[in-house]
Amino acid sequence: MEDEEEIEGLLQTMSDVWGSEEQANAELRKQAASHNTNLFSGKLPQVDVCVVPRWMLSGPLGSGSDAAASYNPAYENRAAQIFLGQSVILSKERARLILAHELIHHWEQTISTESDSNSYPAEIDTMIKQWFPENKNESRWRSAHSHRFLARAHLVSVEHGLELSLLLSGRKSSVGGERPGWVS
Fold it and tell me: What is the pTM of this model?
C-alpha cells in the first residue's frame, strides 16, 4: 500500500510542478543534455534520467527518506542512470541543481582523468563539517564525494554561477549543523 501511495505522490508532484509525467521526463532529459553541453562541453556519454520511488534510491547515507537522488554507472549494455526522488522534483530549480550534482558523478566515472584537479578551497571542508556537527555520517558522505568531485563541483559553481552548497548538498549551507537534503 505504501508503494502505491508513493507512486501516486510522485505522479501528482510531476503533474503539479511539471504539468505531467511526460513533461517532467522530457524537461529532465532536456536539462541533462543542457548541463552536458554547458558544464561539460558536451563530452559526457549518454545517461538516462528517471524519477523513481525512494526505495529505488541509494546514496552515501543509505536509501529511503534520506536519499534524494543516486547515480548508477553504465553496466554492460545499460547506459548510466540518474535516479531522482520526489524530494528532488518538488521544484525545477532543485532538480536542475541536483541533476548537475549527479552529472558530476557521471563525469568522474566516465571522463575524469588523473590530470584533473584534486584541489578545492578549504571552505568546502568547513561547510561539510557544518552539515555533520558530530562527525555523524560525514565519512560516509565523503566516501561518495572524492577530492576530484569536490574540485569539479567548485569549478562548476564558479564558472556557471551555481551556489556551491546547493550543488553539493541540495540546500544552502547552514550554521548549527542543520542537515541538508542529501544528494549522492
Answer: 0.86
Which residues, in sequence order, are CB contacts of 171 under 8 Å at separation 6+? 165, 178, 180, 181
For residues 164 and 134, give the distance between their C-alpha atoms in angstroms, rounded to a whole number.
22
Q: What residues contact residue 112 under an 8 Å CB cut-off, 6+ apart?
A: 148, 152
Q: What is the per-residue DSSP string for 110-139?
A: HT--TTS-----HHHHHHHHHH-TT-TTHH
CB neighbours (10 Å) of residue 46? 12
Per-residue pLDDT tens listing for the chain (184 residues): 577 888 898 889 989 999 999 999 999 999 999 999 999 999 999 999 999 887 777 655 454 445 688 899 999 999 999 999 888 899 999 999 999 999 999 999 999 888 888 899 999 999 998 888 777 788 888 988 999 999 999 999 999 999 999 999 876 764 334 444 444 4
Contact indicator for 79, 149 with CB cutoff of 8 Å? no
Indicate the residue type of 173: S
